[in-house]
Amino acid sequence: MTTDIPRVEPVVRAAPVGGAAPVAPPAPVATLEGVAALAGVSKSTASRVINGSPRVTEQAVMRVNAAIAQLHYVPNRAARNLARRRTQMIAMVIPERTAAFFADPYFAEVIQGAAMYASSTDYTLTLLIESEADAEKTHRFLQSGSVDGALLLSHHSSSATYLELSRSLPVVFGVRPIDDLEFEAHTVDVDNMEAAAIATRYLIDRGRTRIATITGPLGATAARDRLAGWRSTLEAAGLAGGSDAASAASPDLELVEEGDYTPASGAAAAERLLARGVPFDGLFVASAQMASGALSVLREHGLSVPDDVAVTTIDNNSFSTDTKPQLTTVDLHTSEKGAEMVKALLALIAGEAIERETWIPIELVERGSA
Amino acid sequence: MTTDIPRVEPVVRAAPVGGAAPVAPPAPVATLEGVAALAGVSKSTASRVINGSPRVTEQAVMRVNAAIAQLHYVPNRAARNLARRRTQMIAMVIPERTAAFFADPYFAEVIQGAAMYASSTDYTLTLLIESEADAEKTHRFLQSGSVDGALLLSHHSSSATYLELSRSLPVVFGVRPIDDLEFEAHTVDVDNMEAAAIATRYLIDRGRTRIATITGPLGATAARDRLAGWRSTLEAAGLAGGSDAASAASPDLELVEEGDYTPASGAAAAERLLARGVPFDGLFVASAQMASGALSVLREHGLSVPDDVAVTTIDNNSFSTDTKPQLTTVDLHTSEKGAEMVKALLALIAGEAIERETWIPIELVERGSA
DNA sequence: CTGAAAGCGCTTACAG
DNA sequence: CTGAAAGCGCTTACAG
After folding, report:
1. Are residues B220 and B325 in the same domain?
2. Is A351 in Cβ contact with B5 (below 8 Å)?
């Protein structure tokens, strides 16, 4: 498939003029001492105006500020952190499989929301990529006092590890750890069961009776909760199994296929669903990305949406609006979730007593697919 | 469209047992002093073994390591940074519009490549989200000695600002600044003109003579370079303008439409192209994301690919393989670009003289769309 | 309101 | 090879 090009080695092209580029000069850094001297005050006073202490004369404030401006002074962070014993920095830990991670608009939204909220505070948000090869490295970083707290989105890496971490650092989870039991983590999340229930109920309300589902990776609690929401809603409506009463007794007959949240996996799952030969008139897909893939497959098989198969999903993003028809979905208010995670973490850092769990409200968005 | 739910306010649910959650205890931190004491050596020696100095007895090494293990000691980063006058941390600055940014697999790949390379070194990579509301904040952070160097991917924020920044901090650009002229930045990039030329030439070699193009946002140099590559290739082949000789004289007649790299914009651009009523048998789309959108539109209009319209594009990612047919494209080796950016930055930090420009090789990948 | 001084937790010449 | 000491650049009680 690929044309045969020997090896991928970066090519270095010489700079247009002259030889190797000279390294930037050692950059003369202004220091608090310099500022104080120029302003004619002590370091203490200079420090006070920099930190907005009210115990300084307006006179001093002006002179120090002038000196700062003139010197382009920026406080040295390491020194400040060391003295204050905190860093004014929080980290969002994200899994290294960034390709998959970032391609998922869900995470992008969480990050976006977190970043925006953080920028309204005086904390800096840093995304810490968790190296799979060396998870210890991430761990050490987190425990080295580099950040004042951490936001965790990884579902995978053993929550036991993070339980330990959360004993030495304020931590807020964006996902429910699998072994939730004794783990008293602070979490900000959405009610996934309810989201799935809303989407499924919508199909039922539209008169659909044979409702299939495409799930997310069932290793994660979110995907399991959504599956459970679908199932319990069908059961409550006496439609368990997605087709008829008989199937309720044998779960294998349930119309469920697993995907991994990518569009391709949604397409593949839809193919498998169709291959069963068991007719269905409703389909709840656990994410918009997968739904977009499933939609193409339904169309290829000559099935019209929503007429032949009504489809509902979860996530309100470009994947739910780029399709034809657009998807009826449950908006998880994901960017707000990011913001709430930061808010909770800062409260924790500030030593405030906050509740263990914060639930982000969800909302049905009706469009053309069901 | 949206069901009417009043206001989005996070819901806080009380913890199952007891009242508000107690904040984690102050975490007893082990210090170098403690380690030294436990190991029965001086802080100097303890520090030496921690930093792998060869000037220590094996005896000392063992005892210090034992103490470290026993105390779970992790060096305080602020103190170390202050003493060393460097941070062992580098930042990748990314624009705040993370939704759009992250949804683009291109950036995800760059980050991925950078993260993986960084994890093989003793530098930590942090993603710094550039707040649009307060770009100054990002700037101050960068100048406060929080990081040893920065990787820049933003095309927008005035490169003048970063020119200034690059005078006080090693900086490597992943995109070519617009006002390249006097700006002697270090950059790691791909030859966009050549990539477009390869893709366009491929269409010509397949006998296509009326070749249209969908460009990226022309405010960025990469998009402009790709447009230029398409144009110059057509001109060299005597096919300028995409249809006939006449159009070469009037550029307005050129079959070019601008997109913004999203699938939706690719679809819209394809619609506009078709609406012109000027037939074309070849289409070069500046990114796979846009190409996937364009493909849907072509299909909707009953045009078959590659028979009626042969399509080539740039970027080898899920968007170029999720389509039917899959896309013939130019692989930009994007994750390697991320790695090379880090490599260049670390060299700069180490004070090595590196070339101004590093070019990442590109490669044609033949698939079914042309 | 302001300064001198101690201290944050490390690293690193400097002697030995 | 090892230790005592100085110093990294800030902040913050403590006196005044």
Report:
1. yes
2. no
